[in-house]
Amino acid sequence: MKPRTWLPAGLLCAMVVLCLVGPVFLPAFGEQDLANQFLPPLSRTGSGLHWLGTDALGRDLLSRMAQGGRLSLAVALVASLVAVVVGTLYGAVSGWFGGRLDAFLMRVVEILQSLPYMFLVIVLMALLGRNLIALFAALGLVQWLSIARVVRAQVLSLRSRDFVTASRSLGQEPWRIVLVHVLPSCLGVISVQATLAIPQIILQEAFLSFLGLNASEVSWGLLVAEGAQSMDLAPWLVAAPGVLLALTLGSLQFLGEAWRIRMDPRSGRDQ
Amino acid sequence: MRIPGRVLGIGLLALLGACTPDPSRSATVLKIANPAEPASLDPALVAGVPEVRVVSALFEGLTSLSGDSVVPCHARGWDISPDGLIWTFHLALHRWSDGTQVTASEYVWAWNRATVPALGAAYADLFDCMLGAKERRKDGITPLGARAPDDSTLVVTLAHPVPFLPLLLAQPVTFPVPRRAVERFGSRWTRPEHILTNGPYRLAWWKPWRSILAVARQDRGEKAGIDSLLFLPVEDALTAWQMSRAGQVDWLFQLPLSRLKPAQARPGFHSTPQFGTYFFRINVTRKPFDDVRVRQALQAAMPREDLVRYVTSAGELPARRLVPAIGTYPRSDSVRTDFVTARRLLREAGFPGGQGFPRFEILFNSLDLHRRIAEVVARTWHDSLGLDVGLLNYEWKSYLEAMKGLDYAVARGAWVGDYLDPQTFLDVFRSTSGNNRTGWKNAGFDSLLDLSVKSQGQERLEILKQAEGRLLEDAALIPVYFYRNLEWRNPRIEGIVENPMGLYDWTRARWRQP
Amino acid sequence: MRHLISRLLQGMATFLCVLIASFHLMKVAPGSPWSAERALSPEAMQALESKHAMHLGPFLERVLLHADFGPSWKHPDQSVRDILFQALPVSLELGAWALALALLVGIPAGLFAAAHAGRWGDRLSMGIVLVGVVVPSFVIAPLLQEWIGLRIGVVAGWEGPWSRVLPVFCASLATTTWVARMLRAGLLDVLSEEHIRTARAKGLSESVILLRHALPAALVPVVQMLAPAAAGLLTGTLVIEQVFQVPGLGRHFVQSALQRDFPLALGTLCLYCLLLLLLNALADMATWLLDVRTRSRP
Predict the structure, then answer these.
(1) Which of C172, C95, C114 is nearest to C141 (CA)?
(2) Looking at the predicted complex, does its ipTM rise above 0.95?
(3) In this complex, which of B261, B376, B392 lies closest to A215 when CB atoms are compared?
(4) Binding-face residues of C in 4-33 toward B, CB within 8 A
């Protein structure tokens, strides 16, 4: 494997490991220490070394990031996975069959896109309660829509191309053609959509916690939002989770790229 | 791509349109950062401080506040009947901005309008001391105990004596409104083209979410010290602060927590006690909070000192009672932070070391400060009492709904006095009050409040103190700290008299001559 | 022509569905528009609720026939129409500038990155545009105020040309990233196809291949993605409007929901929905024009 693949993969694994076991060995996990608020990175207190400093309530930032990563990564991966799968299938069906079905399916997407999101979330909370399921639903609800539109447009333009017509005349079943010939050509666009959706979902989650979904769990989005409040007092509070977010996104993009190259049957060039 | 070209064209046109003279650049205009766009400029519909700031420049009532004392304004003076029930106000000659006289009958009409349920005036309950007001607020028909024998005499009949009536009459909800304009234009009467004002300023423009310009009226005897007030709705505290540094704003009423240190060092920073208290409500109808010992334990284990020192950190005082220091009202200070007592009380209630105590959540509305405070409180209760405490963050309307339906365990709350008297705090916790929201009903407390209106002076305050003592002893609420007014204003502004409600008489402000 | 009419009819049906669905959504949302820290008396609550009761039939009639939403509930002195018509030009201007900037930066960046795919130029340009999605606007906006706003003397507000600089830049960031990345991915997808190889074999220069042969097809996903993004930009963003004190539409989307100000919420919704439908239709038309091959479809 090339460094382009294992470097981001290793980074992501490291992050997951940190989130899973970090809370066990990091100092003073979740512990408040008001006398030691806003300590800069690499400060040492009675409870140990604070690699990334402490926040407004004297909590170790690295521990909080490790804890927050659990929710953020889970939410981002699940929500974007669901969004990609649903969006791709929906878009492919709509684009492949075209005509009336296409028009109908796209109007449904437009209706969902136009619904007032804030009210949707508020009502969702009332119906499902304030729990993780409602959170996943609220996040996944919107992300798949633009993916569906993009995939549908791609499929629409691909289905009249030579290689597709050729497979058709060979009598291949439609779902096989879509799966084997058409979708791989959309992979690049889909992987970009998916990877760009992840940081959006993570930050969106902070906004939803403002609305009252997820009140008690710490997350990266919440850390960035909180850190922004004391940006000039303690810049590391927003910088550290921000960099982590950037690293996650960068790694995912590199992986997405590598994956695309591997999966694309027509890709002769190694980019 | 064709789009950029077209877009560029639109943009250029818009840019040309934007190059109009800008009053926010003028040095003689006082630019005030208001924390929100006023919901309404109708004095009767005033709901909060952002509205009061603008309305108090445009309108005035029978009395006004000067610092923390009340002075005659439109009323030259008043006579009180021996039983304290009939007040006769003698009005000075004041004019609307169209030159017509402000008459006593306009007060009567305005007050009757403000107390009709369908208007939805938030402060309509301030009229409750007047004869017929409580009935009128229910049925909308019973006339209010106020009449105007002639244009300059106003006779008010009260249901019970209220020594602080002049304080109430400085409230916007009691200001007169121009009957002709209201009847003609309905809810749009406050638009600049329709409005008539009786205060020191007139409304020059109201550009929603941009600015409100109030210009001093030239037709009044005593002219305001500053010609124009420009109210800018600046929602973000950090933005307001940066605007003040860039010279875009002369006066701001909210300082970002993270800029407190540099703000305190800057000339023009002012920090004064506010007539408001931050507290937690306890839902006394929910088990195990129905046990007074549990509530007292939570009250004693509230880390007030830590919170004001490390979290709010702007010189706030920890609250050991509900009512902030005011006049000669005796301070009870009966609430103590005492973890040993708290543990003992919890043990007595049957939860030694927090064992068997069900998990509960602290409810707060979305704000960074509320979250931090709730986090510290939850941690402290966990560490000192062994309780399992979570956080519950709702947006504003859901938060209000949950409190109204008593669907919470412990909830963050606050009260800022409507007028400078302890009564405004204690009335909140009457068993019939819609603001109570704790489920706490105490007949003794109610009857003490009823008793207080029958007495005068210090004796009345002593009775109120007794009532407050009962409320705190029953621990339906946990006082945390007293608010402060934090503001920055251009050091060139002078003549300001500070006021614990954060409201100012704009006419006194003037620019210092260089 | 027939296609256009059918599209128009579909759009109207969609709009109606959105309106009806949102109307019911708002009705079931918990919390009262009239609740406040200082509670109104139960009688006043009741009086207000019956005074402002909304029924679907009369509501649709007023909205569809007269474009009248009545007064705002939170801001009773103003009609929803006034609020919207004052905020719309501001949002359109801000959004148009931001969109233009996003395209002006995003398209060259995407082209550049695709031309240098896999090399340092690619990584660098993609790394820079990454900032747009990773750094949220509530972080970048205060920084810009501190670094630039204080220098030019305009931190916030919407008076004079200088006040446009920071909000436009901030609003364009995320869209720039999307445009650049989608374009790059689209180009790479297209560049590996047969007809490009043919063109290469013919000895055409790389830039001609990129601009003449690959770009039109690669713009398809960009244009599709751009429609909702543009609708979002043109109707404003809350954070940017709050931080830079821009009197646009974005705050009404959020505040009207938080305040349960249904007339205002429905008004903003209608604007957004119409704009989205229009832009989606435009995007589909652009896709059709860009991709010549779809014309040959049965």
Answers:
(1) C172
(2) no
(3) B392
(4) 30-33
